[in-house]
Write a structure and sequence with these properties.
By secondary structure, this protein is an alpha+beta fold. The strands form three sheets. Strands 1-2 form a two-stranded antiparallel ribbon. It has a two-stranded antiparallel ribbon with strand order 3-4. The termini are far apart.
């Protein structure tokens, strides 16, 4: 098992019925380093604060942003203090901010959001193809 798969399994916490377990991380190659950094930062924060890893159920590109969906509760029981939840959200927001200026295809910066075939994507000048179907 490679490092990424092992890391994702820790965040899945045995779940096999969510988009992350079924489809993996749904981003282009250019954002893989950002995702790896986010997972590493989340693990480090949780280890340093002696809290469980957030259960990530989906990671994907949507509307030119990095979306990370995660569980904050187990049933009705909160898993994180308000302080820890804010810190986790901040790490995710930091990764999203970086993704929004990084080409999804190659990882180059600067990059900008463009409509490509009806989808909003983040592309560098090399990978930007002018859209004919912008809304």
């Amino acid at each position: 098992m490679n490092h990424r798969a092992s890391q994702l399994n820790r965040f899945l916490q045995g779940r096999t019925d969510c988009p992350l377990s079924e489809r993996g991380v749904e981003v282009g190659d250019g954002w893989q380093t950002i995702v790896d950094g986010l997972l590493t930062d989340l693990e480090a924060y949780c280890a340093a604060h002696l809290i469980p890893l957030p259960r990530i159920v989906q990671m994907k590109q949507k509307f030119g942003t990095l979306r990370v969906y995660w569980r904050r509760t187990l049933g009705d029981t909160p898993l994180f203090s308000a302080h820890d939840e804010v810190a986790i959200r901040a790490l995710i927001a930091q990764a999203d901010d970086l993704a929004q200026c990084t080409c999804e295809t190659c990882g180059a910066q600067p990059a900008a959001q463009h409509w490509v075939n009806g989808y909003l994507e983040v592309c560098c000048s090399i990978h930007h193809v002018p859209a004919s179907s912008a809304p």
